[in-house]
Amino acid sequence: GEGPTPCSLSLLRDEALAIAALEELPAELFPPLFSSALAGMHSQAVKAMVQAWPFPCLPLGALMKEHKPHLEIFQAAIDGLDVLLAQEVRPRRWKLQVLDLRRNAQQDFCTVWSGTRAGVAWLKQTSAPMEVLIDLCLKEGTPDASLSYLLKKVKQRRGSLRLCCQKLRVFSMPMQKIRKILKLVQLDSVQDLEVNCTWKLATLGRFAPHLGQMVNLRRLLLSHIHMTPHAAPGMEERCVSQLTSRFPSLQHLQELYLDSISFLEGRLDQVLRCLKNPLETLSITNCLISEADLMHLSQCPSVSQLKDLSLSGVNLTSISSKPLWVLIEKASATLQDLDLDECGIMDSQFSALLPALSHCSQLTTFSFCGNPISMAVLESLLRHTVGLSKLSHVLYPAPLESYEDVHGTVHLGRLAHLHARLKQVLQELGLPSMVWFSGNPCPHCGDRTFYSPEPILCPCYMAA
């Protein structure tokens, strides 16, 4: 093999010099110098600078995003941390307490460098454990080489290196692998959890103990959980209980999203009963629920301060409008965003909701596309919402009168005429600034066609 080139030798010499000079280097020169070391792939310099870092926080993830560095550079930074933690006596200048690996961590360097950033409690005592902040996405192929290296170090330095994760996404991945990784995470640091798997209910039951430890969780999304076909009697009940029994420990939960979940019907009160505090967001979408479920929902203490409510894709055709009316009325002082898309709500049901809607003084956005509503009821909605000063966006379905046939083909001329009529009513009521969009799936491809004030047509029609 050839020896090192003169160029690389001078670089190594410079790195050695740079490392020696770090003790004397003014703190404000660290960030630009660190960026240069990343850009130039100088792993020894990176390792040394992590050890001498003169600020409480090092936003490595955000800095690395700019330079797309190699595994070697990442490992060098983690090794620098490791060298620090291995020392019996901490260096005089050691300030570093948080290594932030989140790629989208805020880049407001003045506050980051001074360590006054919100969301991270600096621990002053010298023996405080070092924190690594990370957003985790568990899916096929996780962990990659970088994460594996980090997890190995966290395991070795248990107690002195804490892995904190504010955002956790779980996609399809074997449960034993998930559990193995989560064992190394401080679960009380998780604030935002998305479980977006096609899991069977039993699998969710096995995940539930981890959920119970996420006591600072603010946002929870569960999607595509389906029941095990031909499950033993009582098995389903047991799994649902395993999940809901963990909800009381989620004292800080503000946003709950339940999408495409097959076990909700007849059990919504069991889920909601276990919530101990008011929610800001409740989204139950593409689920089957019964009238009794909706009744329980409307009486649940947790929904009295909702800002966002979505029941999109929940079929309400055969359900009395009373529970929904009660629910909207109950949240009327706080509700800002209401989504009733594709609920199969008919004229009579919709008309019954109008008095409750007229009380929603904070409402800014209301969407109810994909419901069979007539022109007369749309006009009535306009007149009921005239007093809602904050309502700026309404997405409504093409009125029934604009259909040519039972197959749902929209007559564009008719729709344009009805649309003009609604605009005229808005003018008359003194609401010209309110934006009304009509959204209808294109019969050819299913894409939505929007009208405001002119039709924004699906490309399908353009080609025709």
From TrEMBL:
GO cellular component: cytoplasm
InterPro entries, per the entry: LRR_dom_sf (IPR032675), LRRC14/PRAME (IPR050694), PRAME (IPR026271)
Keywords: Leucine-rich repeat, Repeat
GO BP terms, alphabetized: negative regulation of apoptotic process; negative regulation of cell differentiation; negative regulation of DNA-templated transcription; positive regulation of cell population proliferation
Family to which the UniProt record says this protein belongs: Belongs to the PRAME family.
UniProt protein name: Melanoma antigen preferentially expressed in tumors-like
UniProt organism field: Monodon monoceros (Narwhal)
Gene this chain is encoded by: LOC114896470
